[in-house]
Amino acid sequence: MASSMSFLDAVKNRRTIYTLNKQAPISDDRVEELVKIAVHDVPSSFNSQSARLVVLLKKEHETFWDFTAEILKAMVPEDQWSHTEQRINGFRSAYGTILFFEDPNPVKELQSKYPNYAQHFPGWSEHTSAMHQYMLWTALEAEGCGCNLQHYNPIIDQKAKGHWNINMEWNLRAQLVFGGVPEGARDNLPKKTYVPLEERMAIHGK
Ligand SMILES: Cc1cc2nc3c(=O)[nH]c(=O)nc-3n(C[C@H](O)[C@H](O)[C@H](O)COP(=O)(O)O)c2cc1C
Question: Model confidence over 79-95: pLDDT tens digits?
Fold first, then answer.
C-alpha cells in the first residue's frame, strides 16, 4: 500500500491532473475505505448527512465516460467534437470516478424544522458536498493518486442514475476522476499564478 503523506503536505501537493492512467497506486479496498471515512467523518450542515457517494472503478468508470461522450456527441457542434472527445477520452483513461450526489430530503426536513434558516440550507448542502469532494481529492493525493474534478451534471444524471440504480431524487453535484500519475506528468503541470496572500487574508491579534 502506498504511504500516506501528512495532511498539510497533501494539501500543498494537490493539483488538477488531467494526464492519468489506470495504474492506481492504491487498492480498491483502500479507495472504499477512504470513501467510507469521507461519508462517516466529513461534517455536514446541521449534521444533515446529505452527501451520497457512488464509486465507479475500471470498466464501470469507463462506462460512465462512454455515456458522457454519447450524450455530448448529440450536443456539441461537429467542428468542436474532436476537442471534446479528446477531453472525455482523457478522463476515461484514468482508473476511477467518484460521483458526489446530494439527497434533497434531509435538506427539506431541515428547512421545515428550522424555517428561519430555510433559505440557507440549499447553499449549505453545496458546501457539504464540496467538503466531501475536497477531502477525497486531498486523501487520494496523499495516497499517490492524481485527480481532476468535473461537472458533467446535469446532462449525465438521468443516464447514470438509470444504469447504476441510483435514487432518482439525488442531485449529482460533481465527478472526481482519479488514477495513477504517469512518470513526469506532475513536473509538466501548468505553473499556477497566485493572487497575493495579503489580498486574500488578514490576521488580527497575533
Ligand atoms: C469548485 C471547483 C470547481 C471546479 N470545476 C472544474 C471543472 O468543472 N472542470 C475542471 O477541469 N476543473 C475544475 N476545477 C479545477 C480548477 O480549475 C483548479 O482546481 C484550479 O484551476 C486550481 O488548479 P489546481 O487544482 O491545479 O490547484 C474546479 C475546482 C473547484 C475548486
Answer: 999 999 999 999 999 99
